[in-house]
Design goal:
Helix content is 36%, strand content 21%. With 199 residues, the protein is of the alpha/beta class. It has a single domain, classed as Rossmann fold. The protein has a seven-stranded mixed sheet with strand order 2-3-4-1-5-7-6, sandwiched between helices. α1 crosses α5.
Length: 199
């Protein structure tokens, strides 16, 4: 299922690709659907790194615990995120087990995180496109609770809407936890991060 990835060169086991999902444009700032961007913005800033413009994505690179970290925020818009993920996995020779996607999830309450190693896209168009391009649903992800307090048929408006004032307090705390969860995943692997941070 990953045959497309390493036809000529083996993966670099010391390199990790962290993907934050979201939409480009100031009108999407502080919206539920852009929490993947916001988590990566905070984590990259915490490590004194900067974003550069790359192919299909904004890219930041730095070292963490002796590992080479590649962070991307796809500039393709959410529904076409898979094209950027596939390109950067191939360009940077990322092993599938070293891919982590940070995304919003309306099936999880605000203030909660879940870490998983596989599963369906759950109706999330960004994850759907990633799975189409990778040919697999077996990749690690941090799912950031976006809540689901919206009237029937208003899901799109909800995820593209901004956080409520009270929610923003929980969101700020969970962004800190999500950054720590990324680091735990890099150091301890999927199971270690799941045990420490899910919930």
């Amino acid at each position: 299922m990953w045959n497309w990835l390493f036809k000529k060169k083996k993966p670099d086991e010391m390199k990790f690709l962290i993907v934050g999902l979201g939409n480009i444009g100031s009108e999407y700032d502080n919206t539920r659907h852009n929490i993947g961007f916001e988590v990566l913005d905070q984590w990259v800033k915490d490590h004194d790194a900067e974003w550069d413009t790359g192919r299909l994505a904004n890219v930041a690179k730095f070292k963490f615990r002796g590992k080479q970290i590649v962070c991307i925020k796809p500039t393709t818009y959410m529904n076409l995120s898979g094209k950027a993920v596939k390109h950067w996995m191939s360009a940077e020779r990322i092993a599938p087990k070293n891919l982590l996607v940070v995304t919003d999830d309306i099936s999880i309450d605000v203030g909660k995180l879940r870490i998983r190693g596989k599963g369906s896209a759950g109706g999330h168009n960004g994850l759907k496109d990633i799975q189409v391009h990778l040919g697999s649903d077996k990749y690690d992800r941090i799912r950031f609770g976006a809540g689901n307090d919206y009237p029937k048929g208003r899901q799109v408006e909800f995820v593209l809407g901004k956080w409520g004032e009270l929610e923003s307090i929980d969101v700020a705390l969970q962004k800190d936890r999500a950054c720590k969860a990324i680091e735990s995943w890099i150091v301890k692997g999927l199971n270690g991060a799941m045990n420490e941070f899910s919930g």
